[in-house]
Amino acid sequence: MIKNVSTREEYSPPCRMPNGLQWYKDHLYVMDQQTDQVYVLNTEGYVVRTLKTPTENGSGITVGGGFLWTASNGGPSQFREKRPTDTDIGWIYQLDLETGDFVNRFRTPDGGGIHGIEWDDGKLWVTAFSPKAIILCDPFDLVVNETTDKIINKQNGKILGSEMKVIKKIEVNTERLHGLARDGDGIWCAHTSDKIIIKYNVKDGKEMERLVFSEKNPGDAPAPHGLSIKDDQLWYCDAMMVGGGHVDPVRHGPEIGIIKLNS
After folding, report:
1. In this structure, what CATH number is given to the domain that contains residue 171?
2. With contact defined as beta carbons under 8 Å apart, do 59 and 241 qualify?
3. Tens of pLDDT, residues 125-181
């Protein structure tokens, strides 16, 4: 089912590249790819807290199990100076929810970069590039990656470099999977370059809905990066990427807003 939608800018972005969104209770967590900091906004759109994280080329963000989880693409980053914690490879980071401090990290299922991440009742949905897929993982059932563990030693009983057990994989055809938002019996996925958002059935992976932006000038439509749901409304952010191998259209600037179904 194809639906035409429009957008309404809701908050002024607190950063240059808002690349991931997550509503948690009454706060909106925003992942900035330029600085790899997380900005925490209240319901009026004001920043109430800023978290420094070890994320590298941060994209997705989610909250669950008492932790903050970030999708770390790896690098090298084109937008900031290299840090001692950078590894240039893709990770799923488990961080302290209040401070953004490191708790643990896990390799991505395909060993590559990662854009989208979404908590789902004790499990994590993540995007993958090779093959293009949305993958459900168990962050508490780990598989040791022996190759990685030869480089990264065990610390405090945690295997830094282990992989999460894969529970399910939904392979998709559309390019550049980005933000994820779990909704009923489906999961929304932003396909940034195509400027569409598709809802996939979490049981069989079939397409349920497709949202197409209805701006008169296609260049006015956002390139959706992050997604999140609050009060049955789908939120998006557009990082207006420049560089990094992407060719997102240059618009008036990055934005955070709400997607509206056209009547």
Report:
1. 2.120.10.30
2. no
3. 999 998 999 999 999 988 776 555 444 444 444 545 578 999 999 999 999 999 999
**Number of domains the chain is built from:** 1
For residues 241 and 224, the answer to whether their CB atoms sit within 8 Å is no
Q: Average pLDDT of each block of 10 consecutive residues along the chain (263 residues)?
A: 91 96 97 96 98 96 98 86 91 97 93 95 95 95 63 48 88 94 97 94 96 74 93 93 59 85 59
Query: What are 7's two structure tokens?
Result: 């957008």
d(CA 15, CA 45): 12
User: Tell me, what amino acid is at 29?
Assistant: Y
Domain with 141 in it: 2-261
Residue 44 CB-density burial (10 A; 0-12 exposed, 13-18 middle, 19+ buried): exposed
This prediction has a pTM of 0.90
